[in-house]
Amino acid sequence: MTFLNVTEIESALTALASTYPTVTTLITLPFLTAEGRQSHAIRIGSGVCPTNTILFISGAHAREWGGPDICINFAADLLEAWNLGTGLTYGGTSYSAAQIKSIIDRLEVIVFPDINPDGRYYSQTTYAMWRKNRNPASSGGDATKIGIDVNRNYDFLWDFPVAFASAAQGAGTLASNDPASDLFHGTAPFSEAESKNVRWLFEQFPGISEMIDIHSYGGDILYPWGDDEDQSSNTGMNFTNSAWNGQRGVKNDTYGEYISTIELSNVQATSNAMSAAIGAVRGQPYAVAQGFFIPGYYTYPTSGGSEDWATSRHYVDPTKHQCRGYCIEFNKVHDFFPTWTEMEKIILDVDAGLVNFCLGSISKRPYLFSPCWWRDHQYSIWHRVFPPELWGPYGPWGKINEEVESVVTTIEKAVVKAIDAIAGD
After folding, report:
1. What is the pLDDT of residues 370-393, one digit of tens each?
2. In 3D, which of 264, 242, 265, 266 has the Cα closest to residue 255?
3. Chosen CATH of 6-361 out of 3.40.720.10, 3.40.50.150, 3.30.420.40, 3.40.630.10
C-alpha cells in the first residue's frame, strides 16, 4: 500500500458512507476546482443529539501527502469500531468501546480529507514539491505562475501589506502578491474554490465548535494566533482594530493578539492532551506551541490561515458560534514524503490524537434537561426507582403495571374513536 491518490480518497469516502449509512452522510461540496473536480466530505454521528460539531480538514498543500490518509484512516477506524462495538488501540494509547460510542452518539464529526485535489494530483503525477492549487487565473499564461496557496486565502488579515509590519513581511512566511510565489494568496479572500468549500461547511454546520487543519511537517500541535504573540490584557489590541495596522507580526514589540486567559488555557489544555495521546502510541509526543512560534523558527507570522480564520469568526461576529482552530503538523522528521512504512506509524500517532480530541470535544456540562441525558439515563433511573424485580412482568407489583397500562389503552381507544366520529361528520 502507498499514499492514496485523489480518486481513491473520493472512493473511500463513498464506500464509508455506503457501508455505514445510519451514522454517516456523504457531503458534496458545491465549488468545483479549477480543473473541474468536485470534492466530498463525510459527516459522522448518530444525529440524535450531538453536543458539539467538529471539523477535520487536510490536503491544503499538495505536497503534504499524508494528511488525507490520516483523515480517511481516522474515519474508517471510528466507524468500524463503533459498528463492531469495540474500542480502538493505537500502540500504547487505547480507547474503550463506550468512548467510541460516545463520539458517535454525542458528536457530529465532519471529515474533509482533501480540500485541494487538483494540487494533490499534480504533485503525485508531475511535480512532487508542488504546494498550491492549480488555478491559472493569475498566471497570464506563464506556467510558473499557476496556483494559489489555499492556506493563505482565508479572510484573516488577508491584506498582509496593510495589516503587518514591514519586518514581518520580510520573514518569508506571511503571504505574497506574486503569482510565482508558493505563498501567493490569491486576488481576494476566498477567491478559491478550495477555501470556499471550507467556508461553506461552516455555513451549513453553524455549530462547528472546533476545527483541526492537518499539515506536515514537524511534529507540532499549534493553537491560535498565528499573526503575533498572544496577550490577554488589552482587548483593544486585536486583528479587527485597524489602528494597529502596520504593527503586527514582530516579536517583543508593542502589539500582541488578544485572547482571553480562559481561552488560552483551553486551547493549551486541548493541545497538550492530544500531544500526550500521540506520545503514548510509541513515545513520540508532538510539540505544543502557539502558531506564531512554530518550533524551529524564531517566529512564523502568517496571514489568511484556516485555523486563525475559523477562530476569528466569532470575534468578528459574536452571533456566530465560537470555534477554536488548531493545526497539526504531522511527521517529526522534516520530510514531506516519509516512507509508507513510517507513514503507517504516523497515521497511528495522529489518529490517536484525533480520537482524544473528539472525546475532549464532548460537552462536560451536565445535560439534565437535554433529551440526550434522558435517553442515556432513563432506564437506570427507572430501574433504581422501580426495580425490575418488583415492577417487572414477574414481580409482585407487576399487576399494578398491567392495570395502569389497561387504563391508558382504554383512554387511547376512546380518544381515537371520538376523533374518527368527528372526522366522519
Report:
1. 555 555 555 456 556 666 556 554
2. 242
3. 3.40.630.10
